[in-house]
Specification:
Elements: H1 3-14, E1 24-27, E2 30-31, E3 41-47, E4 55-62, E5 66-70, E6 78-86, E7 95-105, H2 109-127, H3 145-161, H4 164-167, E8 180-185, E9 196-197, E10 216-220, E11 238-244, E12 253-255, E13 273-275, E14 280-285, E15 294-297, E16 303-306, E17 309-317, E18 327-332, H5 337-344, E19 347-348, E20 354-358, E21 365-373, E22 379-381, E23 385-387, E24 404-408, E25 412-414, E26 419-426, E27 438-443, E28 452-459, H6 462-465, H7 475-478, H8 488-491, H9 501-504, H10 514-517, H11 525-528, H12 533-536, H13 549-581
Parallel strand pairs: 9-17, 20-28
Antiparallel strand pairs: 1-15, 2-11, 3-4, 3-6, 4-5, 5-8, 6-7, 7-8, 10-11, 11-14, 12-13, 14-18, 16-17, 17-18, 19-21, 21-26, 22-25, 23-27, 24-26, 27-28
Length: 586
């Protein structure tokens, strides 16, 4: 055994079985860039009304109000604690919403008839005509066509004859191995795009909508451990290319000696074939240079979307690799379309039409808007119209269609369960650089549906949201004290060229105010000698008080004499200072 095969087998021990309820995601994939993300693909955390733990899964939004996922992600019939996240970053999503939800699943009385009808069409239209000789035998031979034709007929009679207690009990309606569920939210969630719900094959016409060799991109947030083993949980939405493993629905007829699930299919050379209808479809990764991708713990319920169509939700993976690849198992919604229609019973389209991108974007964008009829009547749709918001404000021969053009609409008849995709091209000639939100309106052409907002939203850039992220800061933001980030005076603050004259010579006359430089200047005399008579209003008094009339007269004369002497002395002093200032005294 080679080292590679030994490693594959060891890792297979940790991989998930087809019956595992462990959630799944992508390994050997690459990170999804923000521009490629569509916000109808979501991650959510849920705990049902009978749940023991919160479950972390993926899903797809349709019509704003409906979340399609794996049934094992939705324990019970009601989810009181549901948080839905949009955005590629697991830990810092663009948006999050708290909701409640009712669970719609396949274990119902009505779905029992639909499952039996699916098996009947599958056998009669796809299997038996190809391998008629392999299904010869009597009604008692469980491999024969006679046995299966009889089974289909008797099953309808049995289902109808059951008591109501069994018809209304999910335990009596476990008629298939589907792991699909639809969560009906108590309040819509905004999303711009979406996908049209579709079976993989039309069992009435035989038309295939997805074939082996036709790649599609699968997205998941979970473990990146190789081969489904536990490993680091991705912090960014991961993606990888997948395709159908083998043609569906021919996988539901196998050679009589097929053994395991990967055994040979029925063929004209088979001695005998076994028919076993299944609601699950097998997918396999396509190696684009990173190794063969697969799914691992972390994100069950993530959608299988190829082109404009959603075909089902991821259920699990097997632990028996085919060569170097693991098989992913998906619950197909084909046979459940009537159940989905009963739950919706309306024409659905995204709840928040338009697009969102970062400020300054000037690229061309294709905008897809799915419309799907889940009523039981044929709808007549008028052409789509978009108005307002994009009137050009530049000179020249620029017209409205240079900003927004409808390249495809849904005008015409829309049969029950049928969907169509409106496509618009925004800014096809790169005339516009979006700096602020643009508000327009769109009329989808659905009778009774009002004109809806059509909005181009401006998302903050990563660096606007994370200004202190190292990738958003230049070298000097991160290293402000580096010598290359500081100018000469930052490094030499005491250098003469970095200081003004008064910093390094504060005693220069021009750096001092007048009273600091010349305290005896007339303007400064009151600050220098506040007791001077010129500063007291001329009311100078002797410090000694008089005691009688004679004393008063004498004091008055003394005061007069003293005052005169003081004035003369002051004048003499001021004169000398003046002469000194003029340089007459050394």
């Amino acid at each position: 055994m080679t080292v590679r095969k030994l490693l594959v087998n060891l890792l297979g021990v940790f991989a998930l079985s087809l019956t595992s309820f462990t959630t799944l995601a992508v390994f050997n994939g690459s990170e999804t860039v923000k521009e490629d993300y569509q916000n109808h693909i979501v991650r959510f955390v849920a705990k049902g009304n009978q749940g023991v733990q919160h479950k972390n899964c993926g899903g797809v939004l349709v019509g704003g109000k409906y979340l399609l996922t794996a049934h094992h992600c939705a324990d019970g019939s009601y989810i009181p604690d549901l948080v839905i996240y949009q955005g590629i970053n697991r830990n810092n999503p663009d948006e999050s919403y708290v909701r409640e939800a009712e669970v719609v699943h396949s274990r119902t009385h009505e779905a029992g008839f639909e499952w039996n009808n699916y098996r009947s069409k599958l056998f009669n239209n796809e299997i038996w005509p190809r391998y008629e000789s392999s299904f010869e035998g009597s009604v008692d031979d469980y491999k024969s066509a006679a046995y299966w034709l009889d089974t289909f007929e008797r099953m309808s009679v049995y289902l109808e004859s059951r008591p109501d207690s069994q018809k209304n009990d999910p335990m009596y309606n476990a008629h298939n191995d589907s792991d699909f569920a639809m969560l009906v939210l108590n309040e819509p969630i905004p999303h711009h795009g979406g996908a049209i719900l579709s079976p993989l094959v039309d069992l009435d016409t035989g038309e295939r909508f997805l074939n082996p060799g036709e790649p599609f991109t699968f997205y998941g947030w979970g473990s990146t451990g190789y081969g489904g083993a536990s490993g680091p949980t991705a912090t960014t939405l991961m993606q990888a290319e997948f395709e159908l493993y083998r043609e569906y629905p021919l996988t539901q007829a196998r050679d009589g000696n097929y053994g395991g699930l990967r055994g040979p299919l029925c063929s004209a050379e088979s001695d005998g074939c076994r028919f076993k209808a299944a609601a699950k479809v097998d997918f396999i990764g396509i190696d684009t240079g990173l190794g063969v991708p697969g799914v691992g713990p972390g994100d069950s319920g993530s959608p299988i979307i190829a082109g404009d169509y959603y075909y089902g939700s991821l259920f699990g993976a097997d632990n028996d690799p085919t060569g170097d690849a693991w098989i992913a198992s998906v619950s197909s919604i084909g046979w459940m379309m009537p159940t989905i229609a009963r739950a919706i019973d309306d024409v659905i389209y995204p709840s928040d039409m338009g697009i969102a991108f970062e400020r300054g974007n000037d690229k061309t964008h294709e905008i897809s808007i799915p419309i799907q009829n889940f009523t039981d009547t044929v709808m007549v749709l008028d052409p789509v119209e978009v108005t307002g918001g994009f009137e050009p404000d530049v000179a020249g021969d620029v017209i409205y269609d240079d900003f927004l053009v409808v390249t495809k609409d849904c005008a015409g008849l829309l049969e029950p369960h049928q969907g169509c995709m409106v496509k618009l091209l925004l800014n096809r000639n790169h005339y516009f650089e979006f700096e602020e939100q643009v508000d327009a309106q769109i009329k989808l052409g659905i009778d009774g549906v009002d004109v809806q907002p059509f909005t181009v939203r401006i998302s903050p850039t990563f660096c606007e949201q994370n200004p202190y992220d190292p990738s958003c800061m230049d070298f000097c933001d991160l290293n402000p004290w580096h010598q290359d980030c500081m100018d000469f005076c930052d490094l030499n603050p005491l250098h003469q060229d970095c200081m003004d004259t008064c910093d390094w010579n504060p005693w220069q006359p021009e750096c001092m105010d007048l009273c600091e430089y010349d305290p005896w200047a007339p303007e400064c005399i009151c600050e220098t000698m506040p007791e001077h008579t010129d500063c007291t209003g001329g009311d100078s008094q002797s410090p000694e008080g008089g005691n009688g009339s004679g004393g008063g007269s004498s004091d008055a004369q003394a005061g007069s004499s003293s005052g005169g002497s003081l004035s003369f002395g002051l004048l003499t002093l001021l004169g000398l200072l003046g002469l000194r200032r003029r340089g007459l005294f050394s």
